[in-house]
Amino acid sequence: xxxxxxxxxxxxxxxxxxxxxxxxxxxxxxxxxxxxxxxxxxxxxxxxxxxxxxxxxxxxxxxxxxxxxxxxxxxxxxxxxxxxxxxxxxxxxxxxxxxxxxxxxxxxxxxxxxxxxxxxxxxxxxxxxxxxxxxxxxxxxxxxxxxxxxxxxxxxxxxxxxxxxxxxxxxxx
Length: 173
Hints:
The structure is a single chain. This protein is mainly alpha-helical. It has one domain (5-166): Four Helix Bundle (Hemerythrin (Met), subunit A) (Up-down Bundle), CATH 1.20.120.450. Helices cover 61% and strands 8% of the residues. The chain contains 8 helices and 3 strands; from the N terminus they run ααααβααββαα. A 3-stranded mixed β-sheet has the order 1-2-3. A hairpin with a 2-residue loop joins strand 2 (116-121) and strand 3. Helix 1 (5-34) runs parallel beside helix 7 and helix 3 (53-62) runs parallel beside helix 5 (87-103). The longest helix is centred in the N-terminal third of the chain and has 30 residues, at 5-34. The chain is globular, with a radius of gyration of 16 Å.
């Protein structure tokens, strides 16, 4: 049986977005326990030239449901707006993506596999098929930003481990 585009992306997006929501809760609790201003984590970076935690979290949404919305339009551009500034706003964003992904019909995504897709960032233009866009661009970006958000929290001392990143596994019952 061939692996569908839906099966190759959406269940994993949902799994990792669930873990990102859990990371947000742990980060917020960490700030409360240590009397830290939430901005100390929300604005934290791994390196000066990297984008902050809030951007990393938002980018998991951008490269999951946002990528699928791009498929619907036939074009995708990076989100250049300012990221959310609170844990509550970030959680709302992640939970909204989870809800939208849960409502997605597999057949819709399959219909976009061979569709022409254009990535636009300033003057840069990259042409993809829908499948190649999802599997070679958005999915790797999704994991990069989820791992970077996790790494920022670890670097700040939040007590999280690999299970927190993996989230709820889809094991055989």
